Task: structure prediction
Amino acid sequence: MSTLVIVGAQWGDEGKGKIVDLLTSRADVVVRFQGGNNAGHTLKVAGEQIIVHLIPSGILYPNITNVIANGLVVDPSVLISEKASLRERGHFLKDSQLIVSDRAQVIMPYHKIIDQGREDLLGNAKIGTTGRGIGPAYEDKASRMGIRMGDLLRPSSLRDRIYNAMDEKNFLIERRFKRPKLNPEEVVQEYLGYAEQLAPHITDTTIVLQNFVRGGSHVLFEGAQGTLLDIDHGTYPFVTSSNVVAGNACAGSGVGPNVIEKCWGVVKAYTTRVGEGAFPTELADGLGEELREKGGEYGATTGRPRRCGWLDTVVLNHSVRLNGLTGIALTKMDVLTGISPLSVAIGYELDGKPLDHIPSDITEFGRVKPRYREVKGWEEPLSDCRSFDDLPKSARDYVEMIEHVSGVPVTLISVGPAREQSILRRTPF
Ligand code: GDP
Ligand code: IMO
Ligand code: MG
Result:
């Protein structure tokens, strides 16, 4: 057995999809363990760009098993259309490439209405969710009102569960959010239609996974979102509704903690964030715009412009600690070419006092001032570098500074969106 968890170490969109796709060449199984189609993971292979939201990023390899595990919230209509669009492009030709947990929660139409309705009512205080129904679906999981993928295969209990849930949902939809009520029978029929299409994939994925683990397979766990969006350890309440940290690879997929061997955090060479919430190193000026344009920083899910800023090593070290990172996959180094000097936050100040960690109180976090170190940039393009020694000295220094500050080796460096634009420095398995 050999296992590796890949997590986002910032606020998401660090390049997890690219890294997982690259490392899948050495894996047997790729497992998503939390989140849903709020994720947008971009893969670039042979000039073709593919964005997956729900299906794991190992899907471009025909002989790999991809798992949508119990920890996810699954929108069946998105899963069906993602499968169809991959197929249209010549991928995912065998149903056996994907299994979906019978215990994964189902995103229902009312979850999306409630998600969007709440954001509208919050006005300026909104979270800036993706509007995909993620939060309300996890709420129903916790309140034990959720529909699970396995229920789709049992029409009479599906009908009962939908009718039970919808009394309360329609009350909210009509009275609180002032939208037209949903007809429960129409919802039942819609979801029975999805069931027919998804049935070949739905199974007890924990048993399949256990067999892989026992057989000595290489298992890659693919995190979504980023550590600062974790429901417990992120910048609450401006977070997503699941545990993003590596520890949740266990509960979210049904393997014991003894199965997890390594965890690499994907770290963008600078910082981005979509949605609302404090962001101490944000560059609200022309430099932020330059990073956005050079880095193509527009949401892969919602198309929203991403807020951009300097690398923040307080954020990085928060992720090192909470995930137990054993490696860092550093992405988008090529984007920093031509920006000199570069600034890196090496600590914060709060009310004139030094602070070296992220406070739990969001209003305090909103008031911290970064303490910056200036480092030399580089002018050379990096996109053709294929070894550490190919990088210019200042870029090598930047990598070593990250290793020094975090105490974690940079195991992989990415210098472009394509698979081959990568410098693998340690073996993942
Ligand atoms: P994810 O959600 O963590 O998978 O990241 P996204 O796919 O949302 O956003 C990352 C973006 O950066 C995508 O457009 C990738 O194609 C792109 N990307 C990934 N790694 C690199 C890199 O090293 N350099 C450049 N220029 N782009 C990259
Ligand atoms: P990937 O996997 C970046 C953000 C949303 C919002 C907050 C809550 O591509 O890195 P939600 O819809 O989850 O309730 O929204 O979380 N968010 C992400 N930001 N990348 C993501 O995924 C995200 N998934 C959710 O913008 O601020
Ligand atoms: Mg993304």
